[in-house]
Specification:
Elements: H1 13-28, H2 31-38, H3 48-73, H4 90-112, E1 116-121, H5 125-150, H6 153-162, H7 164-182, H8 188-208, H9 212-228, E2 243-247, H10 251-254, H11 265-280, H12 287-291
Antiparallel strand pairs: 1-2
């Protein structure tokens, strides 16, 4: 039995994570049929309604799997860094600000080297109001669901088994890999950028003890990149984007078909994010949580 349990008699972290993934993938096996029934026509990749529906269908099995494992492990949502009472706390709004500033700095650096120009407004009138609301909703869905999937149960359980920072590195590499293998036109720059951004979000969890900042940051960064500054992602411009934009120069500057997060300018932004956040948040509030049930 020691193969399955640790010295405290609890299921080892690796087996707990395997059970969690098994529950998720078992439920997702029916997703294609459900999606066809609810969303009979194919939508563009950067259609906000498609993103909201996709994230909703992803959230359901992750929620169920986490609830089951929470009962088995006798833990609470907050043990998995989930902000049950303070999702919209000051940390969330700070995350929104940092995320919007991060993508704006990235776009600003690209523009400074001649790679980005606004050619006009793409959406006006009632359609602008509609798509502004839809893109806020879609960006929030992305921020909540991706953080819930990667940096809640998954990160905490990996940390139980191998320690927080090794877990954060593996988690972030997987986060980058998901983007790399699921989207067209991918290059190594996007994998590296997304993985490093994932590692930065792990740092925010470690220092704040909650996902509130990460959720706000993630939502604002995507909203700014896709809707506000109207960059490409996976070779597409967003349906209902705010601006008509032109991008000139090599893919190292602009990100090419992958959009501004794959620009080499993003490397500068990431370095500044790590330095600024670490300087402002010097203590780790999540450390006490990770000591509990920490044996593999």
């Amino acid at each position: 039995m020691r193969f399955f349990t640790n010295s405290s008699g609890q299921i080892r972290a690796g087996w707990r994570l395997a059970i969690w993934f098994a529950i998720i993938f078992a439920i997702l096996s029916a997703r294609a049929a459900i999606t066809r029934a609810v969303q009979p026509r194919e939508r563009a990749f950067l259609d906000p309604i498609r993103l909201i529906l996709d994230d909703s269908f992803t959230a359901i099995p992750v929620l169920i799997a986490t609830l089951i494992m929470m009962r088995i492990e006798r833990r609470t949502w907050r043990d998995y860094y989930w902000p049950t009472r303070d999702l919209f706390s000051a940390a969330f709004w700070k995350g929104l600000l940092w995320g919007l500033l991060a993508i704006s700095l990235d776009i600003g650096l690209i523009a400074a080297f001649g790679g980005y120009r606004i050619a006009g407004v793409a959406t006006t009138g009632a359609a602008l109001l509609r798509f502004t609301v839809l893109w806020i909703a879609a960006s929030m869905a992305i921020g909540i669901v991706e953080e819930f999937f990667f940096r809640a149960y998954q990160l905490r359980t990996l940390a139980d088994g191998i320690g927080f920072w090794p877990a954060a590195i593996l988690n972030s590499l997987a986060f980058g890999a998901l983007h790399y293998f699921q989207k067209p036109y991918e290059r190594w720059e996007d994998w590296a950028s997304v993985s490093l951004l994932g590692l930065f979000l792990c740092l925010t969890v470690r220092r704040t003890g909650t996902l509130a900042f990460a959720i706000g940051w993630h939502a604002a960064f995507d909203w700014g990149a896709i809707f506000l500054w109207s960059g490409r992602n996976a070779g597409e411009f967003a349906t209902g984007r705010l601006l008509n934009t032109t991008w000139s120069g090599g893919y190292r500057l602009t990100g090419g078909m992958l959009g501004p997060e794959a620009s080499w300018m993003m490397g500068i932004v990431i370095l500044l994010l790590f330095a600024a956040f670490a300087a402002r948040h010097r203590t780790s509030k999540a450390a006490s949580k990770d000591k509990t049930h920490s044996a593999a």
